[in-house]
TrEMBL record:
Family: Belongs to the MTFP1 family.
Lineage: superkingdom: Eukaryota
Organism per entry: Engystomops pustulosus (Tungara frog)
Biological process annotations from GO: mitochondrial fission
Protein name: Mitochondrial fission process protein 1
Species classification: Eukaryota, Metazoa, Chordata, Craniata, Vertebrata
Pfam families tied to this protein: MTP18
Any single GO CC term annotated in Swiss-Prot or TrEMBL for this entry: mitochondrion
């Protein structure tokens, strides 16, 4: 999730980017960190929380685009671009890529500790969880930047919005 603040036309903070609600997007990374310790159903539930966050943010950006567009020409396109761009960006940057990354970091650390230490399995599982949780802050910015580059190089070249370039409609 990008750290930038995005304010509406009225100047109020963006609920999905500037408040504690933003942390709901990290739920699946936390779930992946705890995968070795909790039932898999609980891990999948964290993906539900993150996906609900992504969906709500996309809907909010569509609503904001609808409020900004006063004339009829291009209104549907502006709303569609706002929703699709936000959903794809958030889906990749907040759910899919970080979840996969933390999953692989945790799996590798559990495997390597099993090969390199004589620690009992419960200790290795807790250490794996600690490693996963501690990795979260380090993966966010590189993933966000990579998703920006990916979308700027692909999807965002496909659309423009009424009176905007694609880069002006991206989530922040």
């Amino acid at each position: 999730m990008a750290q930038h603040q995005q304010h509406s036309a009225a100047g109020e903070p963006d609920l999905y980017r500037d408040t504690w609600v933003r942390y709901l997007g990290y739920a699946n990374e936390v779930g992946e960190s705890f995968r070795a310790l909790v039932p898999k159903a609980l891990v999948w539930a964290t993906y539900g929380v993150s996906t609900a966050y992504v969906t709500a943010d996309a809907a909010d950006k569509g609503r904001r685009a609808a409020q900004k567009t006063t004339d009829g020409s291009g209104r549907t396109a502006d709303i569609t671009v706002a929703v699709v761009d936000t959903f794809v960006w958030q889906g990749l940057a907040s759910v899919a890529i970080p979840g996969f990354t933390i999953n692989r970091i945790c799996a590798a650390s559990l495997y390597l500790m099993g090969r390199a230490t004589r620690w009992p399995l419960p200790v290795r599982k807790w250490a794996t969880t600690a490693i996963g949780l501690s990795a979260i802050p380090f993966i966010i910015t590189p993933i966000d930047r990579s998703v920006d580059f990916l979308l700027d190089s692909s999807l965002r070249k496909l659309y423009t919005t009424h009176d905007k370039k694609p880069e002006e409609s991206r989530p922040t």
